[in-house]
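Hi support team,

I've been running sequence recovery on a batch of backbones for a student project. Most finish fine, but this one hangs at about 90% for roughly twenty minutes before it completes. I'm not sure whether the input is malformed or the queue is just slow. I've pasted the structure tokens below so you can try to reproduce it. Let me know if you need the job ID as well.

Thanks,
M.K.
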């Protein structure tokens, strides 16, 4: 039996208009929870993207 590990990264624009990206990867449930908290803190353009093992998203330019 094999287990498929899926990683997700987040990037967003903070309340000051600065583009940010998470420095860690999350599982899907944790990524969705963090997205909810970011939006509650006034962040916009919050997106969750699937990433490969060891890959981190970069802030939007």
């Amino acid at each position: 039996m094999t287990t498929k590990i899926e990683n997700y990264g987040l990037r967003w624009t903070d309340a000051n208009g600065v583009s940010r990206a998470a420095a860690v990867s999350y599982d899907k449930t944790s990524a969705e929870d963090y997205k909810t908290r970011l939006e509650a803190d006034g962040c916009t353009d919050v997106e969750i993207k699937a990433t490969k093992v060891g890959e981190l998203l970069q802030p939007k330019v």
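--
Follow-up from support: It reproduced on our side and the slowdown came from queue contention, not your input. The chain has a mean pLDDT of 94. No action needed from you.
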